Structure formats: structure tokens, C-alpha cells
């Protein structure tokens, strides 16, 4: 629709410009002008296609970057959770070791005291 309107405008303009020439010459010039308009429209369509390709590539690159950033953030958060769990587990192990050592010391003290009472 737009294309036909452009061709008609060019045809009208060409007829208006070269109206004083002979009929055949006018027809030839109108046809040349229409061919130029067709070529220009083809170039415009190709330019739009190139712009669309560039926009699509930019959008895809941006989406890939966003996905990579989200994955890195999620992995970092998971690593932080793992570190917290490991630290908590280490704390539990330390508490268990301390409790076992206290129990061993109490048992040794009780055995030593019992032995010394028995020997006395």
C-alpha cells in the first residue's frame, strides 16, 4: 500500500516536471523515475532488514549477559550458603569435641580419685 502510494507520487511528480516534452520522452523519463524509486525502496527495505538484524543481535547479547549475571549471583549465593553450613558444621564439631574432652577429663579425674581412695 505504502509502496504503491510512493510510486504514484513519483509518477505524478515526474509527469508534472516533464509535462512540456514529447509524449514518448515523458513516458521514458517517468519510467526511469519509477525505476529509481523502486531501487530506493529496495535499498530502504534492505536497510530496515539490516537494522532489525542488528537489534535482534543486541537483544540476544543483552539477554545472554543478564542470564550469565543471574547464574553467577545464584552460584555465589549458593556458595555463601555452603560456607555458612560448613562453618556451622565446624562449630558443631568443635562443641562435640569439647564435650567429649570434658567427659574424658571427668572420667579420668573420677578414676584417679577412686584409685587414690582405694589405695589409701
Structure summary:
The protein is mostly helical.
Characterise this structure.
Helices cover 94% and strands 0% of the residues. With 120 residues, the protein is mainly α. It has one domain (2-119). The protein contains two helices and no strands.
Mean pLDDT: 79
What Rg is obtained from the alpha carbons, in whole angstroms?
A: 45 Å
Tell me, briefly, the overall form: rod-shaped
Structural class: mainly alpha
Name the helicity range.
Answer: over 70%
- Uncertain parts: none
Distance between the termini: 119 Å
Largest sheet: none
What percent of residues are in strands?
under 5%
Number of helices: 2
Helix/strand order: HH
- How many domains, in number, for the residues? 1
What is the total tally of β strands?
0
Transmembrane segments: 48-74, 80-113
Organism: Elysia marginata
Keywords: Membrane, Transmembrane, Transmembrane helix
Protein name: ABC transmembrane type-1 domain-containing protein
Question: What's the layout of helices and strands?
Answer:
Elements: H1 2-17, H2 23-119
Helix pairs in contact: 1-2
